[in-house]
Amino acid sequence: MDREALRRDLATISEKRILFGHQSVGGNILDGLRSMMRAQQGSSLTLISAAEIASHTGGFFAEALVGENTDPSSKCAGFSALLDSAAVQRLDAALMKFCYVDITAQTDVRQVFTLYQQTITALAARHPQLTFVHSTVPLMQVTPWWKRIAKQVLGRPENSVRDNLRREEFNTLLRRASPAETIFDLAAVESTHPDGTREQFEVDGQRGYALVPGYTDDGGHLNETGSVRAARELVRVLSARLSGPKP
User: pTM for this one?
Assistant: First the structure.
């Protein structure tokens, strides 16, 4: 990790007022952010809860749990309610993140994506001063191919790869609809090994991506290594977005 580049990026966002709406993996990313700040002595970035925004002066990175896992619509509604509160007038940037449990093989991906687009479009119209960053949906570690075959032989359901294909479907729609510089590509970070290769699979002629096993201890949440990698990318994207002109 380039410590000087990290220092500059942390310094840039420490002067801004940022809100991150999340659940689950979002907490892992915040843990990674705290780890980076401890390693980067002298960082002036301040982490607060959304409840503290109204009383806090200066720059901050505020976080809030929005909605409920497995219910994407509740997350969109919760994020909207949060941004429509009086405290939003003090914000420079905002982003929300779905979790891997929000999109599975049974999800109508286009419906969820349309809801997300409509939510952000409406919020941007009501709050034109805000810079929005978009997050891809995190992935899960997939069951090894030989275990998938064994489950098929035994007639047991195996959805780990199909769940990730659905998540990638959402992420592809997001990447096509938004400029690359506005995207925190969490899924790409999670599926990219330190050497730059991808954790990938193929099923029925479709290529998909998965969470690198070394970045997780339970197959879905991020361990310290994964958390720091994700947090570093989020800081980079926010720094670039907030130091340049708004598209």
Answer: 0.93
